[in-house]
Request: fold
Amino acid sequence: MEKYYQEEIECMEPGKLKELQNERFLKQVQNVWDNVPYYKKKMKDKGVSPADIKSIDDISKLPFVTKDDLRETYPYGLFAKPLKDCVRIHSTSGTTGRRVVAGYTQNDIDLWNDCTARALVAAGASPKDVVQVAYGYGLFTGGLGLDGGSHKLGCLTIPMSSGNTSRQLQFMVDLGTTVLCCTPSYAAYLSECIAEQGLRDKIKLKAGIFGAEAWSQEMRESIQEGLGIKAFDIYGLTELTGPGVAYECSEQKGMHINEDHFIVETIDPDTLEPLPAGSKGELVFTSITKEAFPLLRYRTKDICILNTEKCSCGRTHIRMSKPMGRSDDMLIIKGVNVFPSQIESVLIEQGYQPNYQIVVDRVNNSDTCEVKVEMPAEQFTGELAGLNRMERNLSDAIKTMLGIKVKVKLVAPKSITRSEGKAVRVIDNRHI
Ligand code: DLL
Reply:
C-alpha cells in the first residue's frame, strides 16, 4: 500500500518536481516531433521546433491541441506508437461529431492504474477494503480506470459496472462494500434507494470516489449524509487517460493533480494567454509520460482555479478546484452565463434533492428557462396544483444566485429519469 502513497513523488519538494517534469517534458516534445507528423506540422506552422524548447518555461511556445485536432486525426493520427505496441482503446461518449479515440500501451495502463490507486489511498482505502466499481465498464474510462487502481492497491474489487440498481444494493449489503466508485448523480440515486429500502444500517460504506461530472458542494454534503460516508471528488478525461488526473485527499479542499504525469496550466479561454494560479481559467494539460497518445497543451474546456498553497495532508502537488462546469456546458440565458451546478446548489440549499432538469428555449426571440424540480417525497400530497408559493420562493432564490428570472415547475417525486452514469441536466431546445 505504501507504494501507492508515493510520498517521494506526491510530497516532492517543488524544485525537484520541476526537475522531473522538465526531463519528462523535453523527452515528450522530442517524441511527438519525431513520431507524430501532425504535431510536427503544427509546431512548424507555429515556427517552433524542439530546439526552441529548453524547459517547461517555454511551454507557451507550443501550439494548443483542441478537440478539433483530435477529430481531424481520428482515429490514429495522434498516436506516437505503432499499433502493435498498443494494448487498449478508450473513447469518449461525445454526442456530436466523431468520437475521440485514445490509445494506451501497457506502460500507459500501469501508470494510469498508479494514478487511480493514489486516489483510492487518498480517500482512505487500503487492501482491507471492498471496492464496488459502479462506473460504466467498456469504452468509458470510469469502470476500468478505478478497477485498475483498486487491483493495484490490492483491494477486493467488485466490477459491477453501472446500472442494475437492485443488484448493486444487494452486493453492497451482502459483500460488505466499504468504498463506492460511481458518478455523483448515481451515488445520489443509490442513497435515495437505500433510504427507501431501509438499508442504511445494513451497509458498511465509509467512502465514495465520485467524479466524471460537475457536482456541487451541497450535493457532496447531501450524499455524505445520506450514505454516512466521506465523498471524494476525482477528475479526469479520456484524452489524458481517464479518472485520476486529479483526486481529493482527506482535506477535501481541491483535487491534487498528478503533476509527475501531467503539467497543468490555466489560460484565458478568449485571449489564450496563460493565467497565474488563483485566477479562474480553462485547464490545459500536457501529458509527459503517456506513450501511445501523448497530448501537449490540450485545452480541456473545463473552467477552474489552481491552488499552489501547501495542503495539510502533506502532498505538494498543486490542487485544482472543482471544475465550475465545462465552457461547453455553460449556458448563456438572456445574456447571462449560467452553470447547471449553480442551480443545483440553490436547490439543495433550499432542501430539495438534486433531481432536476433545466429546459431552455427561445420564444419570440427571447430566451426562456424552466427548471423542473422534484417535490421532496415527504412533502408530496399527491397534488401538484397549489404549489405556486413554493415555486415562487425557489425561483426567487435562483434569481438571487444568477441574476435572471427562471420559471420553476415542481414535479412529482421520481418523475425525472435517474442517471446511472453522467446525468443529463440540460435540454436546450434553442439549437434544434
Ligand atoms: O469522465 C473520466 C472520469 C471517469 C473522471 C470517472 C472521473 C471519474 P470523459 O468522459 O472523457 O472522462 O469526460 C471528461 O468530464 O472534461 C469534465 O468536463 C468532466 N469531469 C470529469 N471529472 C469531473 C469532476 C471522464 N470530478 C469530462 N468534476 C471532463 C466535474 C468532471 N467535471
Notes: The first strand starts at residue 88 and ends at 91. The mean pLDDT is 94. The radius of gyration is 22 Å.
